[in-house]
Amino acid sequence: MTAIFFRFALRLFFGVILVLGIHLFTLSQQGLPFWDHFLLPSYGFNIVITLIFFGVLLFSSRNKNTYLGWIFLLTTALKFFFFFFLIYPLFTIDGEVQMIEFYTFFLPYSWCLVTEIHQLSKILNRDS
User: Fold this and answer.
1) In the chain, where does DSSP find H-type helix?
2) In principle, which of 21, 35, 98, 112 could form an S-S bond with 50, CB 3.0–4.6 Å?
3) Does the pTM exceed 0.85?
4) Mean of the per-residue pLDDT values for the chain?
């Protein structure tokens, strides 16, 4: 269980670094500032919340595989709750959410979600 978590964490971390590199390259090509629009809090939030909730899902898969889908949906809802409670207020300080702020959050969120789903499907296929 620990080995699965650490492999997942490494894959997640290196994938997010790649996404961040592409994101920074795109910003530089457009002449936009790198560290505006809460880039690091968005990426950091997505990494931390994904690792925490994946740990919960991994632990749940050991006990009750039957409810894993429901637990996944619950953790996804909680991610959005925490986003709206912690990150969204940062984006709305100026009164509106700009497209660049949307991408700043949803690029790492998408990568983390895809990585999490991929690992969970491997766990479920292994256990069936």
Assistant:
1) 2-29, 39-63, 68-82, 88-91, 99-127
2) 112
3) yes
4) 89
